[in-house]
Amino acid sequence: MIKVTVWNEYTGQDHPEVVSANPGGIHAVLASFLGEETDFKVRTAILEEPQCGLTDEVLENTDVLLWWGHSAHHMVPDEIVEKVVKAVQKGMGLIALHSSHLAKPFVRLMGTTCTLKWRDGDYEKLWTVAPYHPIAEGVPECIDLESEEMYGERFDIPEPDELIFLGWFSGGELFRSGCVWNRGYGKVFYFQPGHETNRSYSNEHIQKIIINAVRFVAPTIKRNKISCPNPQPAMKTEKIKV
Amino acid sequence: MIKVTVWNEYTGQDHPEVVSANPGGIHAVLASFLGEETDFKVRTAILEEPQCGLTDEVLENTDVLLWWGHSAHHMVPDEIVEKVVKAVQKGMGLIALHSSHLAKPFVRLMGTTCTLKWRDGDYEKLWTVAPYHPIAEGVPECIDLESEEMYGERFDIPEPDELIFLGWFSGGELFRSGCVWNRGYGKVFYFQPGHETNRSYSNEHIQKIIINAVRFVAPTIKRNKISCPNPQPAMKTEKIKV
Amino acid sequence: MIKVTVWNEYTGQDHPEVVSANPGGIHAVLASFLGEETDFKVRTAILEEPQCGLTDEVLENTDVLLWWGHSAHHMVPDEIVEKVVKAVQKGMGLIALHSSHLAKPFVRLMGTTCTLKWRDGDYEKLWTVAPYHPIAEGVPECIDLESEEMYGERFDIPEPDELIFLGWFSGGELFRSGCVWNRGYGKVFYFQPGHETNRSYSNEHIQKIIINAVRFVAPTIKRNKISCPNPQPAMKTEKIKV
Amino acid sequence: MIKVTVWNEYTGQDHPEVVSANPGGIHAVLASFLGEETDFKVRTAILEEPQCGLTDEVLENTDVLLWWGHSAHHMVPDEIVEKVVKAVQKGMGLIALHSSHLAKPFVRLMGTTCTLKWRDGDYEKLWTVAPYHPIAEGVPECIDLESEEMYGERFDIPEPDELIFLGWFSGGELFRSGCVWNRGYGKVFYFQPGHETNRSYSNEHIQKIIINAVRFVAPTIKRNKISCPNPQPAMKTEKIKV
After folding, report:
1. CA–CA separation, D208 vs D222, rounded Å?
2. Distance from C150 to chain D by nearest Cα, in Å?
3. Which letter, b or e, does each residue of D123-161 get, where b requires 16 or more Cβ atoms within 10 Å of its Cβ?
4. Residue C161's CB: how many other CB atoms inside 10 A?
5. Region A95-112: what's the mean pLDDT?
6. What's the CA gap between D130 and D199, in Å, rounded?
7. Which domain CATH number covers D52?
């Protein structure tokens, strides 16, 4: 079983178009389709819970953390951020969704500013550039999203270890929409679709990508402690005199 | 001085729109603006010359080879292709332009099929994703090309060592338009604009990119011979008995 | 089931130390431990069989091809090499073992010379640098090989997409011993241990790595045909007049 | 002119072997040979100066910052660290030397723990794996360092954008000793040699590498502000009705 925790800041519920796009909140929509996978055990966590719902017990029992945040990035305490970062470095997978490009744990793991261009309401065509990648398994070469927030380059990220999806936007921009990085023993996947007033998480292909990504970033092993060991030499060597 | 050779298959001169887009041939247009750089020494070579204009003497005296081919890829003899490939592996820079994605030397150096999607006459917006890269120096974040051949993903190339430009096309596709790879001691830059009936090589920004690329792929050193040496050990080592 | 074909040039059987190190040939030793995995269906092929044992039927029914060659690289016909290369580009995984760094299919897929330094009979310590990688699952951080052929840098390969193992040699050299590249829809893993007079393929950890690698390079999908499609536009776009 | 600032924590001066290995401090030794390059303008800064010697004025007038720290990482205030990180993200080059693998600015830019193995007093052979790289220009394929601190894998860093040097150690370990990453508009080079009781910075080849690195990480452009712009669309697009 892959233990999955879906985190959402869960704000904006006073906007009807936010509520209607993702009834019950984005975490509920994500947990709903993820929960249908028989090898996933899914729970959710939100900002207003104690410790943002991310207690030590929760993090220790999470293989893959999905993160959706936007207007409340600054409300996540640095102490929680450090725990999430350490959990990734020890092996927990992280999937940063849409506006989580500026979520504190993602920015900390990248080491860059993660800034980009944006504009509401473009038509997006999401292209697969690495069709052989496990995250693209069963995904069509192009997914049409009739309305999405445009995210455009220059996206200030480290060169991805693997670039899997590129987004084309009707207003003239494009974006590295699906990227993978290793950080310590953990894998990080950033995925661009998912604006709070759009219905991308109801798209079957977007769901397939997120399901694939959970399996891909799930750890094979976790590291227990972080230290700099000082071993004895195993070999005795000297320079050959010529 | 960087010794530059511009190679062009130089076909299609019976089509007036080819002739008018690049008067004198694409090699002449490229050599003209490259020749204005005081640190470049530029010559041209074309398919119909003996040995395609790429004699041992020419290759030995070339730091950077630009290549433009399209309908006559198959007419370049394999023997010449091998010489070009070896020259790159020893340090010569190669800039493969536009439809040279299927030129034999480029395909040999990539190890993939280098296939892609295509369609004539789209509007292209060429975006810089690595603005800090020497090839992007002095280049705007977006270059508008009013008419270019659409090249679309999936572009079957090895993961680029560096991805510098992405192309957005009006019909809905996008493309990894500017990519760098190391092959042996040589650097390879693939650059998408430059269809034979369009005037992209007259665009000042496209010219700037190609000029920058010549300097970037010019070798710092060249390898003289290709061999597998069998050295004596430098160290005497044994396992420490525990 | 993953359909595995183990290819070996199977030469040197007139040398007793070759025969005793890998009784029945390296292909037999590899097939023996691979055959114990219940999700693998393993067959072997050798140079002296018709078409090197690599008929169209065999290649079409191979998910992962292991390749061991050394003194007979030149005896593999180019026609067979091209078929192997195309099969990889369409999705077949390739594991190139030890002296197969100069095997024609590997060199064709890399696009470099794949030269290196070598010397018989060093002590090797094989270090894991990507312990989180599926190929390193269950593998100790360091494997001691009491006698192996030293392979040393500069190894003339393209920058690996993933570097998993580094080899330390008692005479003073080191080597990028375990590397992964994507080529088309296929994954390629190069793995250094396995000299014909040494017993590395009897080491349980080396076996574990090769078993892991088979699962890792096995394709999720295969590409049927290689072509450059010419699609109709999906979008109608014009520049906004300002 | 490349404006170079050499930062050193400058501790341990009560240990005679530290003083004698690098008279005047490591910053003085580095500044001395860097100062001989006619295109470099070099200054130094140390921990005990106000604001660690890294005032806004100094950082704004620094193209390349060299950093050497070890036992006093924790004494660099987080506010200074953030300024250094931001300066790199805007384009300043950073060269992190030896035990600066745990310096706060380096760790922040990597997003990993940067832990490793260590042991005093090994013999090191430093091998060039990317001889074509500008940082390796004029550098021999192997540099012998008769006494250096062993740094060993697993080095917990993100996959380097370019791996240039590997270190072999007499006790049986090896290390990714020279690595480059892009972070925002800035380049980061980590370089392993330089223990405080050894004389590696007096080695002419080590000096050559550091001089080359300064030129390589010097910015071509700097980014002025860090923001997420909200541009108007440039194109008007609609889906083609079929």
Report:
1. 26
2. 14
3. bbbbbbbbbbbebbbebeebbbbebbbbbbbbbbbbbbb
4. 17
5. 98
6. 25
7. 3.40.50.880
**Interface touch A185/C132, C-beta < 8 Å:** yes
In a domain, D170, yes or no: no
Query: Is the torsion defined by CA of B223, B228, B230, B235 positive or negative?
Result: positive
Q: Is residue B14 part of a domain?
A: yes
Of the partner residues D130, D137, D182, the one whose CB lies closest to the CB of residue B132:
D182
User: Percent of chain A having pLDDT more than 90?
Assistant: 98
CA distance A84 to A77: 11
Please indicate whether, in this complex, the C-beta atoms of C187 and A130 are within 8 angstroms of each other. Answer: no
Q: Which residue has the tokens 């079983």?
A: A1
Q: Chain A partners of D115 at a C-beta cutoff of 8 Å?
A: 226-228
Q: Is the alpha carbon torsion for B74, B80, B82, B87 positive or negative?
A: negative
Whether residue A134 lies within 8 A of chain C, CB to CB, comes out as yes
Amino acid letter for position A232: Q
Q: Examine the predicted complex and report whether its ipTM is higher than 0.95.
A: yes
Spatial distance between the Cα atoms of A154 and B141, rounded to a whole number of angstroms: 8
- Are the C-beta atoms of C106 and C127 separated by less than 8 Å? no
Domain total for chain A? Answer: 1
Which one of D154, D155, D192 makes the best mutation probe of the C interface by having the most chain C beta carbons within 10 Å? D154
Nearest alpha carbon to residue C71 among C139, C9, C143: C9
Q: Alpha-carbon distance A141 to A164, whole Å?
A: 11
Chain B residues within an 8 Å CB radius of C237: 123, 170-171
The reply to whether D132 touches chain C by the CB within 8 Å rule is: no
CB pair distance less than 8 Å for D185 and B235: no
Q: Domain range holding B8? A: 2-111+177-217
Taking only the tens place, the pLDDT of each residue in C2-30 is 999 999 999 999 999 999 999 999 999 99
Distance in angstroms (rounded) separating the CA atoms of residues C126 and C144: 6
pLDDT in tens, A50-60: 999 999 999 99
Helix residue ranges per DSSP H, A47-103: 56-60, 78-90
Q: Is residue B228 part of a domain?
A: no
CA angle C76, A132, A39 (to 5 degrees): 125
What distances in angstroms separate CA C74 from CA A194, B171, C71, C80, D34, one per listed residue?
54, 48, 8, 12, 51
- pLDDT above 90: residue C224: no
Q: Give the nearest partner residue to A182 out of D113, D158, D171, using CB atoms.
A: D158
Compute CA distances A214 → A205, A224, B133, C125, whole Å.
14, 21, 33, 35
Average pLDDT in the B193-220 region?
Answer: 98
Distance from C-alpha of A11 to C-alpha of B147, rounded to nearest angstrom:
45
Question: If we measure between CA atoms, which residue out of A9, A219, A197 comes closest to residue A94?
Answer: A219
Which residues lie closer than 8 Å to B128 by C-beta, 6 or more apart? A153, A154, B136, B139, B140, B141, B142, B164, B165
Detail the DSSP E strand segments found in A81-234: 93-97, 117-128, 142-152, 162-169, 174-183, 186-191
Query: Which of these, C49, C95, C106, C41, lies nearest to C73 by C-alpha position?
Result: C106
C-alpha span between D191 and D95 (Å, rounded): 7
List chain C residues with CB under 8 Å of A182. 130, 132
Compute CA distances B46 → B49, B83, C61, whole Å. 6, 16, 44
D123 touches C: beta carbon within 8 Å: no
Name which of B145, B125, B141 is nearest B133 in CA terms. B141
Across chain C, mean pLDDT equals: 97
Judge: D173–C173 Cβ closer than 8 Å, yes or no: no
Neighbours of chain B (3+ CB pairs under 8 A): A, C, D
Answer whether residue A51 is part of any domain.
Answer: yes
Q: Whole-angstrom Cα distance, residue D232 to residue A169?
A: 12
In our burial notation (b when 16+ CB lie closer than 10 A, e otherwise), range C218-232 reads: bbbeebeeeeeeeee
Task: Name chain D's partners: 3 or more CB pairs within 8 A.
Answer: A, B, C
Which residues, including other chains, have CB under 8 Å from residue B140's CB and lie 6 or more apart? B128, B205
